C-alpha cells in the first residue's frame, strides 16, 4: 500500500465529500506497505488521521466517514509492518494513538507479543488496551506513575483524556485537572474538543457556575460545528437543571451571554426548557423572562408556540390580566398538544378561575374559562390524573381558608 496516495485520498475524500473507498480505488493502491521502495511509517499515517480528526472537530461529516475507512486500513497495515519499524519511538507512540483513536485492539495485542518489544513504555500499550476493553481499574494502575505532561504532546493529550474518564464521577476535581492538561497539550484537535465537552459536564457536577459558563462559551466559539456538538448540547441542557439558574433573576441573567452563543433553534429549545423548569418551581419572574425569549424565536402555529402561550399566561395570573389571559388561552390549538401539555393548561385554568372568582364570583359570571376540560368529550379526558384532581381539592381548601380569614377580619 503506497502511503502518499492513501493520505492524499483520505484528505481529498474528507474535504470534497467523496467516499474514501472510491478515492482509494481510483488511486490504484497496491497491497505492500511501501512508498516508492521505502517502508511506510505508522507515524505518518497517524498524522493524516489527526488531520481528519481536526476536520471532524470543525463539523466535517465526510471526514468522519474517511476516518473510519482510514482506521480500517491502518488496522491491516499495522499488522503487516516489519517488527524493526516498531523500534522507532514515533511509530511505537503511533500504535497507542491509533488504538485510542478507534483502532482495533487486535493490533495492540499483536504488538505486545513482539520480540524485540516496541520502543515505548510497555505500560502505555497495556493501559491503552485496558481502556478500550473497559478495564478502567487496570488502566489507572498502569498509568498512575505516568505524567501526561512528560510525554510528547500528541500522545500526552490522549493519555490525559483517557486517564480522566474514571475520575469524572468519583473525583471530579482530579478529572478536571486531567481534562485541562489534555486541552493544553493538543489545542484545536478532536482531543481538545472531547476534553472541553467533558469539562463542561464536570463543572456542572461540581456546581461551579462560573467555570461552567466560561467553558461553555469556549466550546461554542471553538467547536460549535463539531460532529459531536449534539452531545455537548445534551450535557449542557442537563446541567441547566442542576445548577439552579431558574431560582433567581440574577442567576438567570448569568446565562444570557452563554445562550446567545447557540444557534437560534438550540436557543429556543433551551429557553423553553428553562421556562418550564422555572414555572414548575414557582419562580414566575424567571419563567416570564425565559418564555419571552423563547416566544421571540418561536414560529407561530407550531407546537412550541402554543405551549409558550400557556406558559405566558401562567406567569401573569394577576386580576388585571384575567381577560387577556382568557383570550390567550382560548387561542391555544388544543389539537397539537400532548396529554402532558393539556395537563399544564388545565392547571393554569384552575388557578385562573380561582383568581377570577376569589373571594366570591362576580355578578353575572358565566361558568368557567376552562374549555379544555368543560368542552371536551368526557371519554377523551382520561389524561386528567389523580394528582391534578388532588391539586384542585387543595386549591379549594386554600380558598376556604382565605375566605374564613377574611370573615374573621370583618368581625
How would you briefly describe this protein structure?
Among the domains are: 118 residues, no CATH class; 97 residues. 69% of the residues lie in helices and 1% in strands.
Explain this structure.
The chain has helices at residues 3-16, 20-27, 42-57, 61-80, 89-100, 105-112, 122-132, 136-143, 153-164, 167-170, 172-185, 190-205, 209-223, 229-242, 249-253, 256-259, 264-281, 284-297, 303-314, 322-330, 339-357, 371-374, 386-410; strands spanning 34-35, 38-39. α4 runs parallel beside α6 (105-112), α17 packs antiparallel against α18 (284-297) and α21 (339-357) packs parallel to α23. The chain has 411 residues and is mainly α. Among the domains are: 1-118, no CATH class; 147-243.
Summary keywords:
23 helices; two-stranded antiparallel sheet; 69% helix; mainly alpha; 411 residues; disordered N terminus; 2 strands
List the helices and strands and how they pair.
Blueprint: H1 3-16, H2 20-27, E1 34-35, E2 38-39, H3 42-57, H4 61-80, H5 89-100, H6 105-112, H7 122-132, H8 136-143, H9 153-164, H10 167-170, H11 172-185, H12 190-205, H13 209-223, H14 229-242, H15 249-253, H16 256-259, H17 264-281, H18 284-297, H19 303-314, H20 322-330, H21 339-357, H22 371-374, H23 386-410
Antiparallel strand pairs: 1-2
Helix content: 55-70%
Intertermini distance: 99 Å
Instruction: Let me know the largest β-sheet.
Output: 2 strands, antiparallel
Q: What is the ordering of alpha helices and beta strands? A: HHEEHHHHHHHHHHHHHHHHHHHHH
Enumerate the spans where pLDDT stays under 50 for 5 or more consecutive residues. 1-37, 373-383
Regarding quaternary structure, how should these chains be classified? single chain
Provide the β-strand percentage band: under 5%
Amino acid at each position: 500500500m503506497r502511503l502518499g496516495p492513501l493520505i492524499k485520498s483520505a484528505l481529498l475524500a474528507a474535504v470534497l465529500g467523496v467516499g474514501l473507498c472510491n478515492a482509494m480505488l481510483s488511486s490504484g493502491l497496491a497491497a505492500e506497505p511501501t512508498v516508492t521502495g521505502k517502508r511506510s511509517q505508522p507515524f505518518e499515517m497517524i498524522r493524516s488521521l489527526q488531520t481528519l480528526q481536526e476536520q471532524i472537530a470543525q463539523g466535517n461529516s465526510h471526514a468522519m466517514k474517511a476516518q473510519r475507512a482510514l482506521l480500517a486500513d491502518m488496522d491491516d497495515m499495522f499488522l503487516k509492518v516489519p517488527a524493526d519499524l516498531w523500534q522507532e519511538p514515533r511509530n511505537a507512540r503511533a500504535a497507542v494513538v491509533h488504538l485510542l483513536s478507534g483502532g482495533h485492539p487486535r493490533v495492540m495485542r499483536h504488538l505486545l507479543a513482539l520480540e524485540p518489544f516496541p520502543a515505548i513504555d510497555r505500560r502505555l500499550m497495556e493501559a491503552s488496551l485496558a481502556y478500550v476493553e473497559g478495564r478502567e481499574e487496570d488502566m489507572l494502575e498502569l498509568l498512575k506513575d505516568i505524567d501526561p505532561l512528560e510525554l510528547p504532546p500528541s500522545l500526552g493529550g490522549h493519555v490525559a483524556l483517557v486517564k480522566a474518564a474514571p475520575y469524572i464521577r468519583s473525583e471530579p476535581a482530579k478529572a478536571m485537572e486531567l481534562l485541562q492538561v489534555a486541552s493544553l497539550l493538543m489545542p484545536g484537535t478532536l482531543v481538545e474538543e472531547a476534553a472541553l465537552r467533558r469539562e463542561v459536564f464536570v463543572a456542572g457536577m461540581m456546581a461551579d457556575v462560573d467555570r461552567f459558563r466560561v467553558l461553555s462559551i469556549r466550546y461554542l466559539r471553538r467547536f460549535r460545528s463539531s460532529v459531536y456538538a449534539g452531545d455537548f448540547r445534551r450535557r449542557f441542557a442537563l446541567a441547566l437543571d442542576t445548577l439552579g439558574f431558574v431560582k433567581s433573576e440574577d442567576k438567570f441573567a448569568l446565562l444570557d451571554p452563554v445562550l446567545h452563543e447557540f444557534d437560534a433553534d438550540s436557543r429556543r429549545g433551551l429557553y423553553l426548557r428553562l421556562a418550564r423548569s422555572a414555572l414548575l418551581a414557582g419562580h414566575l419572574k424567571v419563567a416570564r423572562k425565559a418564555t419571552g425569549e423563547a416566544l421571540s424565536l418561536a414560529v407561530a402555529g407550531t407546537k412550541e408556540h402554543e405551549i409558550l402561550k400557556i406558559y405566558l399566561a401562567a406567569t401573569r395570573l394577576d386580576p388585571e390580566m384575567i381577560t387577556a389571559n382568557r383570550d390567550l388561552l382560548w387561542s391555544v390549538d388544543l389539537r397539537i398538544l400532548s396529554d402532558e401539555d393539556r395537563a399544564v393548561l388545565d392547571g393554569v385554568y384552575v388557578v385562573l378561575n380561582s383568581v377570577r372568582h376569589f373571594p366570591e364570583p362576580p355578578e353575572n359570571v358565566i361558568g368557567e374559562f376552562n374549555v379544555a376540560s368543560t368542552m371536551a368529550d368526557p371519554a377523551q379526558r382520561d389524561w386528567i390524573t389523580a394528582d391534578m384532581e388532588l391539586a384542585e381539592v387543595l386549591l379549594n381548601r386554600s380558598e376556604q381558608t382565605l375566605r374564613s380569614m377574611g370573615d374573621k377580619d370583618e368581625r
